[in-house]
Known about the structure:
47% of the residues lie in helices and 14% in strands. By secondary structure, the chain is an alpha+beta fold. It starts with a helix and ends with a helix.
Amino acid sequence: xxxxxxxxxxxAMLLGxxxxxxxxQPSRRHMExxxxxxxxxxxxxxxxxxxxxxxxxxxxxxxxxSEVVLDASTSRDRQxxxxxxxxxxEGPQDVYNYLYITSRNGRLAELxxxxxxxxxxFVNVDEYGKRSAIEVPVAGIAGDNAxxxxxxxxxxxxxxxxVEIWRYGADKVQTMMRRMNEYLAGRGEPIDWEPTPDEGMLxxxxxxxxxxxxxxxxxxxxxxxxxxxxxxxxxxxTVDAAQFSQDDFTRYDxxxxxxxxxxxxxxxxxxxxxxxxVEQAAALFDWTVxxxxxxxxxxxxxxxxxxxxxxxxxxGTAEERAWVFALLCRQQGLPIVMVVPRGESPIQERPALPxxxxxxxxxxxxxxxxxxxxxxxxxxxATLSQVRDDxxxxxxxDAAGMDYPLTSQHFEQVDIEIPAAPMYLAKRMKRLQxxxxxxxxxxxxxxxxxxxxxxSRHAGVGEVRLWELPFRTPQExxxxxxxxxxxxxxxxxxxxxxxxxxxxxxLYFQGPGERENRPDSGFAEAIRYFRxxxxxxxxxxxxxxxxxxIELVRTAKLHASYFLGLxxxxxxxxxxxxxxxxxxxxxxxxDGPWTSGARYNLARAHEQMDxxxxxxxxxxxxxxxxxxxxxxxxxxxxxxxxxxxxE
Length: 647
């Protein structure tokens, strides 16, 4: 931080000398004002980037809302609040708990800052100059620009440093119940209505981005992608075209950024250690299949989910799997498109396959099978050209009396659809993307037409257009009837009333690596929270009295058991994972919500333990939506086992 302050001071001095020599005072004032605005804007962006890298920290485990009382958005001059820390003038001189706001924009009395409010003081600086906050309760205020902390720091802080004050409000249970009832009744927000444990943080991100947007003059070259005009009229009319060009961020943008951050974090560790793009995409596809239990559209009552919902809930249709897969790959610079086979009789229920566009070829994956398209004797993902040229390749995907429904003829002519939700086409997201770099990098913009031009050169490619699913999803969510809303509420409520489950999932997404200024790795911390959700059955009824509360705690326990299996599998502990999938999921609730996913992942754990015969036997028992792919994988495992056995 001192390095940044010194650099800023030096820059100001140089500007002052240069401008002073010319005598152009108005220009000097303008430059200084712009520099101050840019500095404040940089601080806002840094804060947003840091938040998006540490999303778990902002998950409230208390069923009370947190809200910002004082920051740049509420200060007297709408500028960043800066403060130093020293000894209380009226107390012991070796206790550093007197916070003085040097920017003199505090408004502490006017904002009614009081004992129990929380001070976030950004005094922690790592070796890279990155700042993070400590949080200390307020003991009392001493005017508009001074307060006492309930806990003193070990040393004074002489350099003015950013400070914020937050407050935990009243019990929000009634507010949450009201919002849920409004959703059921068809009132309120039909999209992003969920009272999730981190929504306060998402709203704060949007507010800070709007402050940044209004402070900075930085612009980007942008026009609305022409492919938008190729969408059907019914879909284009559901999107306000003005939203693409606006600079202001909307409330839903916070959820979109969260989704992008989750995708970045997951894909960074789930892609594996290789450098081959096809292998990286295959690893991300495999993670998607293992972590998103396949559901039919009928099983989810025709409801559409956005990728953040699919990720958090751990289940989705084949299309939703493809969408998650595309976003994971996007954050790693791996372009995914949807290949729509034409043929003489297109397969209506499964019209598209995600494909990696790499080295002028399309590498095909099938989220319905849960497998990449490949030849039986070749572990490499097959390309569109190979599928066209080899009639036996797709025929080899038949299994257990189930014929693979696509043939080479279906792929002689194909259309291409590019996954791009409306926000990926928006000017503000392209502008924001340019602000993130290094570990904080986020891909927030898609040059759909440029990708379309590349892919259209491939032999046999006909029309190239935007994928309709990202546009149809909000349309479906806006028009849901009560039965679908009830089903949606049942899905999310366990994460709302048991916020520890949400926090543990976010920690899992962030990966196994060591955390800055944290004693545990991400996985170790997630395990601790998941375990808190697994009390003994005898303790559940002893603590809970209402039937719906007992059911909620049991559901959270079952979710935690299954999610612990996924986590320990990723942590290369297949025996532990097998225990969670078998005893604690399948045996605990044989007909529960995770039966198919647990059986499949139990088989994968046996694969990881080099027990292909056990894995194959489990997969052959599959009656799930992924039955065809499971039986096919079982056959591949048996063939591999037979080939490895001595004569």
